[in-house]
Structure formats: C-alpha cells, structure tokens
Design a protein that fits this description.
alpha/beta; Immunoglobulin-like; Rossmann fold; seven-stranded mixed sheet; globular
C-alpha cells in the first residue's frame, strides 16, 4: 500500500476517533463559508459554492479563534485596552488554530442559491465544493445559505458575473499581493505559525492596481488564486481589508494526503483552477497577475499557449535579488532569457514585468487600466 494511502487512512481514523470525544465535551459541527463565484445569462447560470464543516466548541464562533472575549486574567482596566487585547489575541490565534481544526467528513448539507436548493455531502476532509445551476440570480454579490444537521444555518456569498464579453482578473497572493521574504518551502509554515495580519506587508501598489482595474471594469470578476491552505483565509481577509484590497473569492487548496502523494501539488492546483475558470466563465478574458518567484510564468505561459484568446494580458512582479534567492527563481532576468519567458514574449498577449503594482499598472494596456496611475514607471519592462 502506498505511503499516501496509509497517511489518508490514519487521518480518517483520527477524525473518526476524535469526533465522538469532542461531541461528548460539547463541541458541535459548524459551517465555515467561503466566497464563491458564478455566472448569469439566458444560456444558463451557475454558482460555485465553497465551504467547510468543522467541529467547534458550542460557544465559539464558527470561524476564527476559539474564544470571543478576553480571558479574565488579562489586565482590562480600560475599554480601549480590552478591545486592543482582544484584537491582538484573535489575530494571533489565526496562525496555529488550524492544527486543532477537526473536519466533519461526509456530513449532509443543504445549499440554497436563489430559487434552487441542492442537497449534497461534505468530502472526507469536510470540504464542500458544489456547482448550483439555473439559480435565477442577477449579476453582483448574493448571499447563499448553507444548512447542515446539527450545525445550524450560515450565509456565505457568491459573486455572479454578468453575461457578455468582459475582463476578469486572477491574482496570486504570496509575493504578488503580499510580501513574504521567506524561502518558498517555508512560506506555508511561516504564514500559518508566525505571521498575523498586523505583521504582513502588502506589495506596494498592488491594491491600487486591483482597485483601479475593478473601478474601470465594474463587472470584472476578481479571483485570488493561491497554493495556500484554506485555513489561512480568515487571516487573508483581515490582511486584504486592512490594506485596501477589493473583496474577492479566494481559491485555496488543502494540504492533506492525496491518492498520489503526501501533499497536493501547488502547480496542478493553479493549472486546474485556471482551466476551470475558463470553463465556468466562458465569456471572460483574464488579466493574469503573478510573480517570477517560481511557477507563475510557467503556468501563465501554458494558459497563453492553450487559450490565447482568453488571456487579455499577463503581469509579472519581478522579485528583488533577496526575494529571488529565497524563492529559487527561474525567471530572474527582466527581459526573460529562459524558454518560459521567451514563450510569453513571442505570444500576441501583452506581457509586462515590474517591481510592484505601480510599475505593472503603468505598463498594462490603457484599455485595462482605464486611466493613469500615480507612481514611478522606472524599472518596468514590457516583453
């Protein structure tokens, strides 16, 4: 039996043994909803609903830290001090709490999107990833209701894209929207164990770029695509809100063992999700934003080669020398000397490379940006 099968069997056994113990201590299944996306139109509509089922203490919120008030032993003589302490503790817990997350596998759930109700089950890791068709919703953000036995009812959201040809945006997170300054092999552990939202640093100008494109194309869907785990979504929400990024669905991954290995492939996750976006939203042409740290140029060049009519432009953030060393970059030269960069340069798709969001925005086609942006263009390269 492959080692990955042994790992999956052990994981399943742990969940089976732990859940009854937690139930006896008052823990209950809870639904954690994630933002999804969808389409509308006479030719059919769809909505992709994303959520996860976890065991949580009965008096704890469904998502985030296990407590909702400051422990009595802490000094809270002033209201402001108490609120500050609470915010700090909540944010700090977001790093390590996933190690005591216990998913509820195969729990029956009912999902209501517009006029449609769908019944399904969570997978072995407690995840729900369901497409609901013919929902009857118009374009924009809409609430979705997810209901499960013993877990109550929660609302999450889906962004329904209007019919017709339009621009869409896919943006990587680590080292594209958020500075990590950590070797790629350690980014996941660093994000989960060490850093909280207050300590994370945004890439300069990236929020401005995304907001400008979104303002210029109000119906454009924005998707954050990352190889990070779903467990970090609460921290990312806090980070994006604090730093002025537009709200958008996040397509993350699960770290657990698979049929083929101990961990899921980050490259395959991105490839699969990009191809799925091409299928789910067939009228959208995508602006693909990433960094040259490792695999984004390779993945985006594949999308350009396979779907050149569906890629509006490619924007690659060029890492600093320090970041390139940490990332083990394969796309180090700004003009791109490797086969991946040459493939991008030889395509008819606009490709720009810059140090931050400001430089990328100055180089992107005018029809995408819809106007000038502040910031220096020095260092930006068009290939």
């Amino acid at each position: 039996m492959p080692l990955s099968d042994i790992a999956r069997a052990a994981e399943n056994r742990i969940y089976r043994d732990v859940i009854p113990v937690l139930k006896a201590r008052g823990w209950r299944p809870r639904v954690i909803g994630y933002d999804g996306y969808g389409s509308a139109g006479e030719r059919g509509s769809m909505a992709r609903v994303l959520a996860r089922m976890l065991m949580r203490p009965a008096d704890a919120p469904a998502e985030g830290p296990m407590f909702r008030s400051v422990p009595a032993g802490l000094p809270t003589t002033a209201t402001a001090m108490r609120e500050m302490a609470l915010d700090t503790l909540i944010d700090a817990q977001r790093g390590w709490r996933q190690f005591i997350d216990v998913p509820v596998p195969h729990l029956p759930v009912t999902i209501r999107v517009g006029s449609v109700a769908v019944r399904t089950r969570a997978d072995r890791s407690g995840y729900i990833d369901v497409v609901v068709r013919d929902h009857g919703l118009g374009a924009g953000w809409h609430d979705v209701v997810i209901e499960a036995a013993g877990a109550g009812r929660v609302s999450t959201r889906v962004h329904i894209v209007a019919p017709g040809s339009r621009l869409g945006i896919v943006c990587d997170i680590d080292d594209t929207a958020m500075v990590t300054n950590v070797p790629r092999m350690f980014i996941a552990a660093w994000n989960l164990l060490v850093k909280n939202a207050a300590n994370r640093e945004p890439v300069p100008g990236m929020a401005t770029l995304l907001n400008t494109v979104s303002d210029s194309h109000p119906d454009a869907p924005l998707i954050f695509l990352s190889t990070g785990a779903w467990n970090v979504v609460p921290t990312l929400r806090s980070f994006f809100k604090k730093n002025g990024f537009p709200a958008a669905p996040k397509l993350m991954t699960d770290w657990g063992p698979t049929n083929t290995g101990w961990f899921r492939s980050g490259i395959e996750h991105k490839r699969t999700e990009l191809r799925r976006l091409m299928i789910d939203l067939p009228e959208v042409s995508w602006l693909l934003i990433g960094d040259d740290g490792q695999h984004d140029p390779l993945i985006y060049s594949e999308m350009v080669r396979e779907h050149s009519d569906r890629v509006a432009a490619v924007a690659i953030r060029r890492l600093s020398q320090k970041e390139q060393v940490l990332a083990g970059t394969q796309f180090a030269h700004p003009m791109g000397l490797g086969p991946v960069a040459r493939a991008l340069a030889e395509s008819d798709v606009p490709v720009v490379v810059g140090r931050d969001g400001y430089e990328l925005a100055r180089m992107l086609p005018e029809w995408i940006m819809g106007g000038d942006l502040p910031g220096s263009a020095a260092g930006a390269t068009q290939i």
